[in-house]
Predict the 3D structure of the following.
Amino acid sequence: MKQLDQLPEIANRSLGGLHASPEMRYAIQMKAARQQKRKTQAMVFTKIAAPVLCAAVLLALFFFPSAPLNTVAPPSITSLPLGQLQAGDTNGATLLGEVSVSNSRAAGDSGIWSSVTSGTFPLIGVKGRYYRMLSSPSAVSASSALQSLGIVEEYTTEPSLSDTGIISSNCVSAGDEVYTFNGYNNTFVCAKVNGEYRLFQRVSFNGHATLGKETLIDTLSISGHIQSMSISGIGTVSDSSAAENLFRILTDNATYESSGSIRSSSILTITLSDGISAQMLISEDRLAACGVWSCPEFISAFSAAVN
Amino acid sequence: MSESVLEASPLGFSELYEQYATDVLRVCYFYIGDRQKAEDVCQDVFVKLLTTKPDLKAGSEKAWLLKVALNRCRDLWRGAWFKRVILGSPVFELIPAPDQFGKIDEEEQIMAAVNQLPPDFKEIVLLHYYQGYGINEIAEMLSLPEGTVSSRLSRSRKRLESLLKGDDAQ
């Protein structure tokens, strides 16, 4: 049958509008990454945590049959000397290592955003704008702290209850200054924590994200400083022009969805020319840092760029 | 393309996706007749590729992808049997590229005829005539004796001739 022999040409013409898209490719990679993560977590628990837990319980019961079960001290912030890092360091200042504030969440879960096992993440609220402490870099040079935004008026362990019109923090002492950082207005601030100048990135908190008519680019004022861009599990765009172009696609097309956050399957890391990084969480075609934004155009452009 | 690329490298996945994903998607659509479900199956196939990292010989990647896709299509087809009996099968629609609109009417007949074949016949026609696989390759992919594949191919041709002549007579 002649027509059967021509089936490939006929079928490809008849189904020419049906093709596998970059968006589908990205969805596949996200789905696979989620499955691998679940598999790894289940494996870790089955092979390591469960037997250890059982052994610990048995030992405790054997040696301390009457010991109460609620005497485990809560985790605390500790300093772990890890060597020297370079980031935003124009005066040759030494960076002393990494402050670890969590002992039960893997570093990869929040990327470079500092987290804690319980309570609110380390943050500063500056008159309605909220900033989350970055775990990397572990300290920045004092010379990068430019303009003072004011002093912390309230130190509190319950920042969600603070007045939004003041400067408050759960990790910076009352009376300490909060500064802009290297000209990245409304995107980064820095302040002293445990004696070191630490960097904080603009995020959503407690239903607060953008203020007034702010758009995404107002909360991520990094254009012109981008060196590279990567999405975990997908790849890296290491050409700065290409990365800048992708950022422009993001800021031109992102649509604001909410002031909340998302359960992420991946992390977008934007490395800047002065060595620091900004971060957004990604789930499907939504991105979150200060607010949740929808931008399928960016996702497909990024997938095409790493191809 | 080597086995090590399939096992470890995301670049291997990108190449496989670029080369074969559209074919896999179109075969799935041909089988199921539902675009959304065809896209779901295509996604599942490539997720399985990424998560199981099968040990494949170079050059056999597409056959593996199509085999997994057809298995999944078959499961979906059987699972939707009840719905089809009650509601009827969905109409198979062509999805031409924009510059082909209005030019493909005469080809609709063969496409519709293939779509009317029973699933067992349809998948062999798709693999042989659409994707170019030989009898022995199809037998290996579908875990069937070669004789069965030949027989189904022959009966498919007869069925198609009958369907197309019936349309011509009208």
